[in-house]
Amino acid sequence: MNRKQRRQAAKDRAAAGSTAPVTLAPVTAGDALSDMLGRFAGRGQPADAPIPNYVRDTVRDRVSKGLGGRRDRAALIRTVEAAMRFADTAWRAARDRTEAPGGKSLACKAGCSWCCYQQVSMSSYELPGLIAYIRESYQGERWERMLARLKERAAQIRALSVDDYRRLKVICPFDENGNCGVYPARPMKCRGYYSFDAQVCRWIVEDVEASIQARESNRLPEAFSGESVAIYDDAQFGMAEALQAGGFAYDHLNLVLAIELALERPELLDRWLAGDIDALAEARAR
Ligand code: SF4
Question: For the chain, N or C: smaller number of CB within 10 Å?
Answer without folding.
Answer: C
